[in-house]
TrEMBL record:
<feature type="domain" description="S1 motif">
    <location>
        <begin position="82"/>
        <end position="165"/>
    </location>
</feature>
<dbReference type="InterPro" id="IPR036898">
    <property type="entry name" value="RNA_pol_Rpb7-like_N_sf"/>
</dbReference>
<dbReference type="InterPro" id="IPR004519">
    <property type="entry name" value="RNAP_E/RPC8"/>
</dbReference>
<keyword id="KW-0808">Transferase</keyword>
<keyword id="KW-0804">Transcription</keyword>
<protein>
    <recommendedName>
        <fullName>DNA-directed RNA polymerase subunit Rpo7</fullName>
        <ecNumber>2.7.7.6</ecNumber>
    </recommendedName>
</protein>
<dbReference type="InterPro" id="IPR005576">
    <property type="entry name" value="Rpb7-like_N"/>
</dbReference>
<dbReference type="InterPro" id="IPR012340">
    <property type="entry name" value="NA-bd_OB-fold"/>
</dbReference>
<comment type="function">
    <text>DNA-dependent RNA polymerase (RNAP) catalyzes the transcription of DNA into RNA using the four ribonucleoside triphosphates as substrates.</text>
</comment>
<keyword id="KW-0963">Cytoplasm</keyword>
<dbReference type="GO" id="GO:0000428">
    <property type="term" value="C:DNA-directed RNA polymerase complex"/>
</dbReference>
<keyword id="KW-0548">Nucleotidyltransferase</keyword>
<dbReference type="InterPro" id="IPR045113">
    <property type="entry name" value="Rpb7-like"/>
</dbReference>
<dbReference type="GO" id="GO:0003677">
    <property type="term" value="F:DNA binding"/>
</dbReference>
<feature type="region of interest" description="Disordered">
    <location>
        <begin position="181"/>
        <end position="206"/>
    </location>
</feature>
<dbReference type="GO" id="GO:0003899">
    <property type="term" value="F:DNA-directed RNA polymerase activity"/>
</dbReference>
<dbReference type="InterPro" id="IPR046399">
    <property type="entry name" value="RNApol_Rpo7"/>
</dbReference>
């Protein structure tokens, strides 16, 4: 999920930026330093939105830059287990589908795409449910549930695992398909329950 944080950090402003408005200089440098990094507590920093305050500058002998204790407001994305998130399919492979959620891609393993036997069409680049007829292709918008999350030092090294097997997940039109399948199963069950039961022949006592 996305969260907004306010943190305090010392920002180094080099001499070439002394002519800028101080807050603008601190914001520019903070964006360069923070945006895109992965923090164990915050998650993936998506954007540094604002500089809340800037303290008095300090100069270190031998360093021409000025150092400012600053309060920064930033937005970060941290995947939470069991969280339902919207995403877009970016790649279809034999072993699953990659889905972009926020600033990171996660994998929906082939076994977690749908509650159906799946055919992988390599030529056309899609998955199709054998019984349901559901299809999944690149650029499809989907709802997924996060089932594993491992944030590493970079976005590229981080791994997110997701599922779309439950009713309500996956593509929007899959909900209608699931409802129709439920109705069909109900009709079959009702028909079977109305079938006359075979009666066993009565045994005659000797």
């Amino acid at each position: 999920m996305y969260n907004v944080y306010t943190i305090r950090d010392v920002i180094r402003v080099p001499p070439k930026d002394f002519g800028m408005d101080l807050k603008e200089a601190v914001l520019k440098i903070a964006q360069q330093e923070y945006e895109g990094i992965v923090d164990e507590e915050l998650g993936i920093v998506v954007a540094v939105k604002d500089v809340v305050s800037v303290g008095d500058g300090k100069v270190i002998p031998g360093d021409g830059a000025a150092y400012y204790l600053s309060e920064l407001e930033m937005v970060a994305f941290k995947p939470e287990l069991q969280e339902v998130v919207a995403g877009k399919v970016t790649e279809i492979t034999e072993f699953g589908a990659f889905v972009k959620i926020g600033p990171i891609e996660g994998l929906v393993h082939v076994s977690q795409i749908m509650d159906d036997y799946i055919n992988y069409d390599q030529k056309n680049g899609w998955f199709e449910g054998r019984d349901s007829g559901k299809k999944l292709i690149v650029d499809d918008s989907v709802l997924t549930r996060i089932i594993t999350s491992s944030l590493k030092s970079t976005v590229q090294n981080s791994k997110i695992g997701m599922t779309m097997r439950q009713i309500g997940l996956g593509k929007e039109d899959w909900v209608d398909i699931d409802e129709k399948q439920k109705d069909k199963k109900k009709v079959v069950r009702d028909a079977k329950s109305k079938e006359p039961k075979s009666q066993k022949p009565e045994r005659q006592r000797k």
